[in-house]
């Protein structure tokens, strides 16, 4: 019991406000001593340490971005089941090391958003686990969590408690509907927010039921907005020395993502124009059409481009057809013109049309499936798919960081971690725990 009591000594400390302010201003970044200038130039967040208490998609997507930019990400996972998405297979990348585990492999979903992280298997529903998190908070610059509002307060892991332990910490909360407002207590899932906040209503074929976007775009945009918020807060801390609480929600980010559609309704005071499938509400022709074998998207977005399309289709007379001479008229006669364009495109294969349109200056593209995309010559040329070594699965291909820089080098430094892969490393190197202490915690199922 004496060892157990020792582990509880990291309860939140209460410093005087003047001392806390002095410490926060002196703090800089958590691992500043190890962040050399050359390393920061290549990885701009080198020396920043992030405590990642998120699961599923929006939160892990946010912390993966920070990890790509060089931050050290310590991912807190339940010691037996881990991140929810570990069980969201198939498909799973099979283990090849011959070790029997509770999972059949590493799920593709989990692998997609957890590279460049360290996994600490930790239960914090007991005092020892809470104590460990409080110790870690002192060593970190950022904490990102995606629990329901108020649910971490009973563990003294809410912002009010954590900011007393580390006043310079940036604390980012990701929720479905935010920390305030009538819906704040609702659990937030991408498809529900797509429905509630308008995106589903404008997605799908004309005169057909609404559909969700093919990928959880609201989760992804929220992850990106939160990463932007963390970067802004880190920049602000350079001057103030103080952290702050970031309140990011799927609902707010989805409303922001409505962009010109929301603006049109604000300007006119009228309803939106509904679903348009792959077409555009105010530009014709501009959509995906059937070809002889698959589909192709083309855009006659202005009079010049419309003329190019007509010439490439072998129908120059369409340029002077009184029904189509302006975009407004083409919109008015949308159904007629779209049918005419598609009838011509159906005479050849997609590849034949790609060759015909090549170099024309007109926007066009094959409608590729996902295998076609990840094996696309341009995608590969841009190094968007990278193969890395996984400790239990061998080679794994991952989608790479998308933004290229002239000086810095965001990259995949490590494969998504196994559950608890770095538990001992984090406890020993950051918190100074000995092997006996870690064994005790494992025996009591506090860590894994």
UniProtKB/TrEMBL annotation:
GO terms for cellular component: mitochondrion. It comes from the Eukaryota. SUPFAM superfamilies: CoA-transferase family III (CaiB/BaiF). It holds the Pfam family CoA_transf_3. InterPro entries: CoA-transferase_III_domain, CoA-Trfase_fam_III, CoA-Trfase_III_dom3_sf, CoA-Trfase_III_dom_1_sf. Belongs to the CoA-transferase III family. This is CoA-transferase family III domain-containing protein. It comes from Paraphoma chrysanthemicola.
């Amino acid at each position: 019991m004496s060892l157990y009591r020792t582990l509880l000594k990291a309860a939140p400390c209460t410093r005087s406000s003047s001392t806390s302010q002095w410490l926060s201003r002196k703090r800089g970044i958590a691992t500043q001593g190890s962040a050399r200038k050359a390393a920061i130039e290549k990885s701009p967040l080198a020396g920043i340490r992030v405590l990642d208490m998120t699961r599923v998609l929006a939160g892990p997507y946010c912390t993966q971005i920070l990890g790509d930019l060089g931050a050290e990400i310590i991912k807190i996972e339940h010691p037996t089941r881990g991140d929810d998405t570990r069980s969201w297979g198939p498909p799973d990348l099979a283990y090849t090391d011959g070790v029997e585990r509770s999972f059949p492999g590493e799920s593709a979903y989990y692998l997609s958003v957890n590279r460049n992280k360290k996994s600490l298997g930790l239960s914090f529903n007991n005092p020892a686990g809470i104590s460990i998190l409080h110790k870690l908070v002192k060593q970190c610059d950022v904490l990102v969590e995606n629990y329901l509002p108020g649910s971490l307060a009973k563990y003294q892991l809410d912002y009010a408690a954590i900011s007393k332990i580390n006043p310079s910490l940036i604390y980012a909360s990701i929720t479905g509907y935010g920390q305030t407002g009538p819906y704040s207590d609702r659990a937030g899932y991408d498809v529900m927010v797509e429905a509630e906040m308008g995106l589903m209503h404008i997605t799908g074929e004309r005169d057909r039921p609404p559909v969700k976007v093919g990928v959880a775009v609201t989760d992804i945009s929220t992850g990106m907005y939160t990463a932007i918020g963390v970067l802004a807060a880190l920049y602000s801390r350079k001057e103030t020395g103080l952290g702050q609480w970031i309140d990011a929600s799927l609902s707010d980010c989805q409303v922001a993502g409505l962009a010109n559609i929301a603006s049109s309704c604000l300007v006119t005071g009228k309803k939106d124009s509904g679903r348009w499938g792959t077409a555009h509400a105010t530009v014709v022709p501009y959509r995906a059409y059937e070809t002889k074998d698959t589909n192709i998207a083309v855009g006659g977005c202005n009079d010049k481009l419309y003329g190019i399309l007509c010439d490439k289709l072998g129908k120059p007379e369409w340029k002077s057809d009184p029904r189509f001479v302006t975009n407004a008229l083409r919109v008015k006669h949308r159904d007629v013109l779209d049918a005419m364009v598609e009838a011509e495109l159906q005479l050849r294969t997609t590849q034949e049309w790609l060759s015909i349109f090549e170099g024309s200056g007109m926007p066009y593209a094959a409608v590729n499936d996902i295998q076609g995309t990840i094996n696309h010559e341009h995608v590969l040329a841009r190094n968007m798919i990278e193969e890395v070594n996984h400790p239990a699965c061998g080679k794994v291909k991952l989608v790479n960081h998308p933004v290229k820089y002239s000086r810095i080098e965001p990259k995949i430094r490590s494969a998504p971690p196994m559950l608890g892969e770095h538990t001992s490393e984090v406890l020993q190197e950051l918190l100074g725990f000995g092997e006996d202490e870690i064994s005790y915690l494992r025996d009591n199922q506090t860590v894994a």
